Amino acid sequence: MAIDINRCILEGRLGSDPEEKILTSGTKTVRARIACSDDYQDRHQQWQQRTYWITIQAFGHAADELALFGKGERIVVFGKWTVEEFTKDGKKQFFNKLAIEHVRGSDHRRGARPQQQGQEPVKGAQARDLPSGNPGADFDDEIPF
Is residue 132 part of a domain? Predict the structure, then answer.
C-alpha cells in the first residue's frame, strides 16, 4: 500500500506584511503571500527567472511565528497544500494555498545579537532590526532581491 504525503517546504520573500485576524472561535490566523523564484533556460538558451506568488495561511502558534516577519523578509515555511472550494455567481471556484505548520527566517543578514548575561531576550520586530553580530554578514549586499 502506497503512502501519500502532503508536505511542502517553500523559501522566498514575503510580498507584504502578514495580515492578522481573529476568527469567531477566538483562533488567531495570519495570511500572507510569498514570492518564490525559479531560474530556467528558454529555447534561445538565455537564462530567465519566473516568480510564483503563493498564498500562505497559518493558525494558532504558527500564526504567531508568521506575524513576527515583515514585507521583503526571506522565510522558510513548512506546511500542507490545501484547496478551498467556494461558489461565486453560481460557479464553483477553487483557491489554492499553503496551510503553514511552521515558519523560520532564512535571511542570514538579520537576527538577534547574542544575549548577554542578565538581559532579556530580544523578540519579534526588535530582533529583526538588530545587526547579526557577524562581521561578514553584509557580504551579500549586492544581491538585487
Answer: no
Least confident of 19-28, 69-78, 110-119: 110-119
Rounded to whole angstroms, how far apart are CA atoms 20 and 136? 35
Name the domain count of the chain: 1
Residue 23 domain boundaries? 1-40+50-109
Neighbour-count burial for 95-133, b at 16+ CB within 10 Å, e otherwise? eebbbbbebebebeebbbeeeeeeeeeeeeeeebeeebe
3-class DSSP assignment, residue 16: coil
CATH number at residue 15: 2.40.50.140
Q: Is residue 138 part of a domain?
A: no
pTM: 0.66
Mean pLDDT, range 113-136, rounded to an integer: 44
